[in-house]
Amino acid sequence: MTEFTGKAVFGGIAVGLASVYRKKDSTVEKRKVEDSQKEWERFEEAVETAKEELQALYDRVAEEAGEESAMVFEVHQMMLEDDDYLESIEDMIKEENLNAEYAVSATGDSFAEMFSEMEDEYMQGRAADIKDVSSRVVRILSGGADETAKSDVPVILLADDLAPSETVQLDKSKILSFVTRFGSTNSHTSILARTMNIPALIGVDFPEDADMKEAIVDGFVGKLILEPDEKTLEHYRELLKKEEEKRELLEKLKGKENKTIDGREIRLFANIGSVSDVSEVLKNDAGGIGLFRSEFLYLESSDYPTEEEQFKAYKTVAEKMEGREVIIRTLDIGADKSCDYFGIEKEDNPALGYRAIRICLDRTDVFKTQLRAIYRASRFGCIGIMFPMIISVGEVKQIKEIVEEVKASLKEEGHEFGEVELGIMVETPAAVFMSEELAEEVDFFSIGTNDLTQYTLAIDRQNARLEKINDPHHPAVLRAIETTIKNGHKHGAWVGICGELAADTSLTETFLRMGVDELSVSPSRVLSVRDAIRKTDLSK
Ligand code: PEP
Ligand code: MG
Question: Which CATH class for the 36-141 domain?
Fold first, then answer.
């Protein structure tokens, strides 16, 4: 039995056979051609075929997992239209009389190397894409079919990393878990694992001969076990059975009310970080979306997302939720979420620095673009907006003035929009202390316990060394939550909790006793929180 550690990007347990995913041998022959014009035309035809394949993939994935997941194929199509890329291939074919397969493959490799050396993480991530799209063209030039990895039994898939086009072409009913050597939390493999609700690990240095060996993935602690001994296997089979039983029991709660034994009902919503997460929200029967982290639009892009791009994303979510409320949090970058194109200078204390609403109130052009997109999308469903990192009433007044400006200009341009609730995240001690005055200004509060804990306890939420003293149940945090709920209600604002603590079922009763109106948790936690609510009796 051998154990390998890595970083878990999605929790859960998988027990099954390991399958090492190997890319087909793609050695490309280098040769001289006689008629370079004809070779160029052969390349152009292959590019057309590649674009058709990519469009078909885009359509399929957009339908299955939403436009955001399919976007990668649009990027691939754009890469095939890039002047520098095409010029390099043309030079090799026409000037050096080289065959198209070689020209494409060599260009793909050198562009990938160039991308991977860039500082910008987004651009580094595109190295895999340029290689992927180049391999597609090489395969077409060599007359190969568009094949997918196939396996008859469900397996734990081990790979160096998976190219986006490989992940979508996999037969998903045959995969129990993903384990990769490379990749990042935001890699496509991780995104897919999250969507598929299966455990996934990255950064695992598994051995090549792991293929077809018995394996276990523990997505709770980030561990891959190969050839487990009988006792370990027994332990994990037991865990798996318990997980399964829990899931089955929770399944029965779909369609049920979020009501305590003595009849108090609250709203149980879900948090999402991208458009494709909506399918999980619906699958887990959440009543709405209490936190839509809109940062993904900015983080996945190499430039400011346009109003149109944002509008499309918000509209899709609003429509898919069919009238249930969707609360969009405006841009919350800075600190751990950095976007190079914002040109934010390095800071000594980024968590206390230029971030979130502070950027938006400074860069009102960026802020207005987002607000315009949200308001335009508001007529396609029920949308609310909340603002992160608020510390003062002055900020909220400023925001409301900007919102009024945006609404006025949209009206003037003939755009229609719906009723939009406005709220703030309460995630700083300042907002807690000012909650009476702040409640007068807004429709609702949403308590961000992740940051509220960090700022209340003065413990950096990213610092692994402080893990031991980082106590989210600290009475100071709980008192801050209670104060916020009480003051919100006193001045007519409803109050929800959307930080990780909202899913902590050991606190559900406490929150209900405090009078919370809404809990918003990750989609996979909705049913267990519903279970906890239904087991609570506030009359006792
Ligand atoms: C929070 O701080 O609790 C929160 C929900 O926001 P984020 O985790 O995105 O900072
Ligand atoms: Mg926060």
Answer: mainly alpha
